[in-house]
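Revision sheet: structure tokens.
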Amino acid sequence: MSRYKTMRNPAMKNKRSIRLMLCTAAAIFAFPATTFADGKFFRRLEVADEPGISTQRAVVAFKDGVETLIVQSDIESAGKSVGWLLPLPAEPTLIEACQPMTLNALTQIVTPDFANSKSGLMIFFLALMGLTIYACLDHVHCKKNSIKRGHLISLFTLLILIMISLFMVPSLMGVRAKVAGGDVEILQSTKAGVYDVSIINAQNGDAVTEWLTSNGFACPPSATPVLNEYIKDDWCFLAAKVLPETTGDVTHHPLRVSFPTSQAIYPLRLTGSDGAHIQLDLFVIADKQAATSKMKTWVSQGMKVENNYRRFARYETSRPPIFSGRGILSARIGLPDVSDLMWTGCTLTRLRGNLSTRDMENDLTLEWTDGKDWQIELHDRKSASSLSAIAAAATVILVLPLFVPTATRQGWTWHRFAWKRLPITLTAAMVAGAICYIALDVVSVQSETGTHPIFAASAHDKVLRELVDGPRNKQFAKTYQEIIDETEMKDYVELTPALEEPGDYMIEATSSGWNLTILDTFYIPSTIAISSNGLPVLASD
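Predicted:
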């Protein structure tokens, strides 16, 4: 009986509550020290395209009243592609082919920040929420009609520790000829890579549709009203289709087009005439940060010439200009068709958005801001769910103790307190968790684990060092592949006629030996001269 009375004594209960507070404090201060280690060296994350939505990627470079567009048809097949049409506000001054990898590679290089799942932190907050509920019920249970100073002190201590813990964890929170009939005028005709390109002008949309149909293009009738709008605005059209003499499978590639314009613009009205949504990735190079209300800014970086990147510098005879952001870990841009559009002091912006047909009723006109370097943080569903659970738990931790003084003053039992106040608190927690999830940028993420292909450049380092000591035989291509096969990265290195992934390489015969071109870590192609006896020619030779 005396043991029962001792356990029910409020003073003893208060001491137990204080011990509980101390244990909670120990958990709060110990947890952050072991939770936030992060290593991302062997994983690549990539935003997955929305299923069922057409994807477009493009580059817009704007400087001194001249815009350069890098675009690619989003309709591709294993063989020849259906012709495609691009509206332009002025007749282009330059039309040329880009390397097939250009837009996909840029997507891999200029990436947002991917948030790690906060599973450990979520468990910690859920445990702290449980302790909070227990402590609140315990105080109400121990006090009937009045509040003792000891209880207030322990409750106040709990709230202080909770607030300290919240500050100790990380923030939760881009020559003229006329066609017969005179309705369509061919302003230019040229070949660019695998494409036969014509720049046409017309008197009305029906004439354009008829010309496209007669020249093997697929042009739906729904496009005619939009074509009329462009013609009324005095625009012309770039029409591209695979050259008729092309045989076998076709490697589709982007086109780069330059034209004079008073403002940077990306044509969307013709795309919107299809009546389907699109997912647009737009990379903008300009003096200032690009912005538009229709798309989110994923990345913005001020760029400068990169002079310290030394990969293969001992051997290489040529490489494109390389630019990097101001940050130490910024990606390097050395894609030949992109880096030559950049200059020191320019800003590279990546804009991303899912556009509806209503969003595409007008062309995308870019605005300019004096923005700072920016990288959006994206969450997959697992990461967003863990943060939402943390927000819900934090709501319980902060709200439930606020009801305790009133409950103890009115002499509530812990049963009544749990029945009256706990459902309200949990409802508020669920609302807070839902708001947190909605506020986060949640995307579908593809993850590749294991050794990433960007490390494949180390295999080429090994081969070149061995070749400097003397070739194994005079068949350079065979020797190179044999040494590659002896490395741990052989599965990530491929001899290919079209460079696509880091580690890919090409060998071309020359009058004095060979040219070896290696696609480096940041999709930067480095060309190395190989002598007739199979030795790399050092850059200083």
